[in-house]
Design a protein that fits this description.
Blueprint: E1 2-7, H1 14-23, E2 30-35, H2 43-47, H3 55-62, E3 76-77, E4 83-85, H4 91-101, H5 110-116, E5 121-129, H6 137-142, E6 145-152, H7 154-157, H8 160-170, E7 174-183, H9 185-192, E8 198-200, H10 204-210, H11 228-242, E9 292-293
Parallel strand pairs: 1-5, 1-6, 2-4, 2-5, 6-7, 7-8
Antiparallel strand pairs: 3-4, 7-9
Helix pairs in contact: 1-11, 3-4
């Protein structure tokens, strides 16, 4: 299974949530995180990893053949043992590696897709901020599911209506997640025409650990896999793994609190349902009475 995570504006915490989603993917799957951000990778610097192997070495190896097992030769491990293919921090090198992967004859990312279709393997691609010219777009279009993260303020949401038709065409299985405070899910649903799957909870300590940041001595034993952010990522991962048809989304989590139990796992949009198409003539958050709430995720890193 190949899943892409992305944003279309700003830095709503795609990399941090991608790490959480990969770390909390339900067993017995073999998860792999791939940094496919055209603006350059962060994980090698955050966690003090080696400069190689990485996305550049994978792109070079992909030219010599598409054996899916090759991909594991270009992984490194995060401190918790999570397998990751890092991108170079330099944007030019990252873009060149992504362009090289996209230049093969299998729709661009044949080796990633082949690895993702191995039994028990799930590949999660952190594609960063994506636009129609992004070299990461072939990965997005080849994905089995797309997770779009966006902050919930008016300026972040205002540009989405015109982007939704294109985003819906990128994937047969798109999902929308809200990040941070701002408008309530009901307001977003009314204006965009699609219910967000949920809202990433406020968990600054969990986000700090997943971003490789030092934490205070009293929090040294803080385990992100059992934090609000980790639990929420596990809920989303479980829903993605099940690939269920649509039903009610998760309600907004309380500030800093745990997410709903697995009984509330939402069913995701079906392959025939686009993520959203805004009705013509509508304006995001322009209706009288629409106002932001103050719930959401304030501790996410990019």
């Amino acid at each position: 299974m190949l899943i892409s995570l992305l944003s279309v504006k700003g830095s709503p915490g795609v990399t941090t949530f991608a790490v959480a989603l990969t770390a909390r993917w339900p067993a017995p799957a073999r998860p792999l995180l791939v940094e496919a951000d055209p603006s350059g990778g962060d994980l090698a610097l955050r966690f003090g990893l080696s400069t190689t192997p990485n996305l550049v070495s994978l792109a070079a190896a992909a030219r010599r053949g598409g054996d899916p097992e090759v991909i594991w030769l270009h992984t490194q491990q995060l401190p918790d043992g999570l397998a990751v293919i890092t991108a170079p921090p330099d944007a030019n090198q990252a873009c060149a590696a992504l362009s090289a992967l996209a230049s093969d004859n299998d729709g661009g990312v044949g080796i990633l897709r082949a690895a993702a279709y191995q039994p028990g393997v799930v590949v999660i691609a952190d594609c960063g901020r994506v636009d129609p010219d992004s070299p990461a777009l072939p990965i997005v279009c080849a994905s089995d599911a797309l997770v779009l993260l966006t902050r919930a303020h008016a300026d972040d949401l205002a540009h989405l209506p015109r982007r939704m038709p294109a985003i819906g065409a990128w994937s047969a299985y798109p999902v929308l997640l809200l990040v941070g405070d701002g408008y309530a899910a009901a307001d977003v649903t009314r204006e965009l025409g699609v219910p967000p799957l949920g809202r990433v909870p406020d968990d600054p300590y969990g986000a700090a650990v997943l971003a490789g940041r030092p934490i205070t001595p009293r929090r040294r034993r803080y385990d992100p896999t059992h934090s609000a952010l980790g639990k929420y990522a596990h809920t989303i991962a479980t829903a993605l793994a099940l690939r269920q048809p649509p039903t009610q989304p998760l309600s907004d989590p309380p500030v800093g609190g745990p997410t709903a139990p697995h009984a509330s796992v939402p069913r995701l949009p079906s392959a025939s349902q686009p993520i959203a198409v805004m009705p013509s003539g509508s304006h995001v958050m322009s209706r009288p009475g629409s106002r932001p709430n103050d719930r959401g995720e304030g501790g996410q890193a990019s």
